[in-house]
Specification:
alpha+beta, six-stranded antiparallel β-barrel, 6 strands, about 10% strand
């Protein structure tokens, strides 16, 4: 193939990617079909809506908001907990300030729209080979993965998880030795979370000051990976980021939330400051206890 044909094929692939994003955007618009309700009852933040319309488009776990019209104030959406042939049960994290006696429940696609918008912006940066790309070779890697350099040989590792099988050990070695992009694919139940936990634990053992971001499409997968990392390396500093309610964070991972760790950080900072102060006093021939007493 000559360069002109290769460039044409590259453009076709990028345009196909763009088309998929546009199709997803249209799908989100279609999913906004409202559900009509004729009345409702409420118990605290839990609302029960009597439904007049078809419920085939609704799913447990999706976010719905009350339609207040174009001029209505914005309200926090609620999560669909359950539904029957004639009723939808929704839990609102923030109790609605206004609920019409009858009206419509709209699917909240704000998060999906933001996500698609970010993907479109990222794709445009990729196509234009923008200087804000973290990896300047990303376009070439996606178009021609064979340009990725071979992973370096990694010395024998001390495995954190003694039950790691040979296939996962090899995958961890390759990932650590890779410079740039590394992808691992596998169906559910094949041990990808085990691999992630071992890979992060190995990197933290090699470079304790490493900063690692772990993201996932599901809360459960993320929480499982983080709790395993903590079990492997208890002294590692792991922060779980979530929305304000943290309602979808597993109980065993809630100790990793930022709000849960502030007090621990305060005590650690206080202890480190005290140790530094004591050493400083010794270095200049002063008694730290006497200075603290005088300053009290």
């Amino acid at each position: 193939r000559d360069n002109a044909l290769e460039a044409k094929e590259d453009r076709r692939l990028m345009e196909q990617w763009k088309s998929q994003l546009l199709a997803r955007q249209e799908l989100e618009r279609i999913r906004q079909k409202p559900i009509k309700y004729s009345s409702f009852t409420a118990k605290s933040n839990r609302y029960f809506f009597n439904i007049d319309s078809d419920l085939t488009s609704i799913e447990v776990g999706e976010l719905r908001k009350i339609d207040l019209g174009d001029g209505g104030e914005w309200q926090q959406p609620g999560e669909v907990e359950s539904f029957s042939d004639s009723e939808v049960q929704i839990w609102f994290y923030v109790q609605p300030s206004k609920v019409p006696k009858s009206g419509k429940l709209l699917l909240d696609t704000t998060a999906a729209s933001i996500k698609i918008g970010r993907e479109k912006a990222a794709l445009e940066s990729l196509i234009q080979k923008s200087p804000d790309l973290v990896n300047s070779k990303l376009y070439d890697l996606i178009i021609s993965p064979m340009v990725q350099e071979e992973p370096e040989n990694v010395p024998e590792l001390n495995w954190i998880n003694p039950d790691l099988d040979e296939d996962k050990q090899q995958a961890v070695r390759v990932a650590i030795g890779s410079d740039g992009m590394f992808a691992l694919e596998g169906p559910p139940g094949t041990g990808k979370t085990t691999f992630i936990a071992e890979l992060v634990a190995q990197e933290l053992s090699r470079n304790p000051d490493s900063k690692i971001l772990i993201s996932s499409q599901t809360n459960v997968a993320l929480d499982n990976a983080l709790t395993r990392i903590i079990n492997h390396i208890p002294e590692s500093q792991v922060i779980r980021l979530a929305d304000q309610s943290a309602s979808r964070v597993l109980d065993e991972a809630k100790k990793l939330l930022l709000s849960s760790q502030i007090e621990l950080w305060r005590e650690k900072t206080k202890k480190n400051a005290k140790n530094y102060f004591d050493k400083w006093c010794i270095s200049i021939g002063l008694n730290s206890a006497e200075i603290e007493l005088a300053a009290a």
